[in-house]
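In response to the reviewer comment on reproducibility (Comment 2.3), we provide here a single inverse folding case reported in full, input and output, so that an independent group could reproduce the run without further information from us. The structure tokens appear first.
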């Protein structure tokens, strides 16, 4: 196959920008703000927490299609933040901040999966369907994000079989929202304490080891049950940033 010509303005393969991204003052300002990684981790945590709370409202109100169309947003925010903070170089951060294409979530996920999750991520792992066939979580959340007819029909099936919505209704789904917020808040604190990207990345790799992730999930689940008993359940997690992303 013919190799595409490198763009002199951006190192990201396939980018068609006609000028350096940083020549746009808005992009330059965004990249400058991004240099404060403690703030970026905090803003991302706050944004994920807001989405979690909004999705919990959808569950409570029975807005199932609205809920499914949002599931990718949580995953994408977390993955993009990890990618931009720990994997992308300065030039690629400028590309990301410009919102120029290509900006594939799947490509970023695969790199984060290898660099942060130790290849243990489950989004692209094939799973057996409820009655037949297979699916991947990535395919499901992408279908929902596009508000596809297949997602709509899936929701029709879920409403007819409410037992499959149990993880949303009992709060289990939102445990990993709390984990994302917790890990981002940990990164925020470490950056604030003066640690560099290499050191914080090493800690996040440790946190994402299967045994440590399982322990974190168990702790969050226990906290959720206690809050449920007390009537103060918070789908955004106890680390759901007091800093507003706006």
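Designed residues, in position order:
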């Amino acid at each position: 196959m013919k190799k595409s010509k490198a763009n002199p303005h951006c190192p990201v393969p396939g980018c068609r920008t006609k000028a350096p991204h940083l020549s746009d003052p808005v992009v330059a300002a965004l990249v400058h703000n991004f240099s404060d990684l403690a703030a970026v981790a905090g803003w991302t945590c706050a944004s994920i927490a807001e989405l979690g709370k909004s999705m919990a409202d959808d569950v409570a109100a029975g807005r199932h299609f609205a809920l499914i169309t949002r599931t990718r947003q949580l995953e994408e925010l977390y993955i993009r933040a990890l990618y931009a903070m720990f994997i992308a170089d300065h030039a690629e951060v400028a590309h990301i901040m410009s919102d120029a294409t290509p900006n594939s979530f799947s490509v970023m996920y695969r790199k984060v999966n290898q660099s942060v999750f130790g290849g243990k991520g489950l989004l692209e792992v094939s799973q057996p369907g409820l009655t037949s066939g297979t699916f991947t979580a990535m395919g499901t959340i992408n279908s929902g994000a596009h508000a596809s007819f297949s997602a709509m029909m899936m929701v029709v099936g879920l409403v007819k079989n409410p037992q499959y919505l149990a993880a949303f209704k009992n709060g289990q789904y939102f445990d990993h929202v709390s984990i994302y917020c917790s890990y981002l808040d940990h990164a925020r604190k470490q950056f604030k304490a003066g640690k560099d990207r290499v050191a914080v990345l090493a800690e996040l790799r440790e946190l994402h080891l299967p045994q440590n992730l399982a322990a974190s999930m168990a702790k969050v689940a226990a906290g959720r049950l206690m809050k449920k008993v007390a009537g103060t359940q918070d789908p955004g997690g106890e680390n759901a940033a007091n800093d507003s992303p706006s």
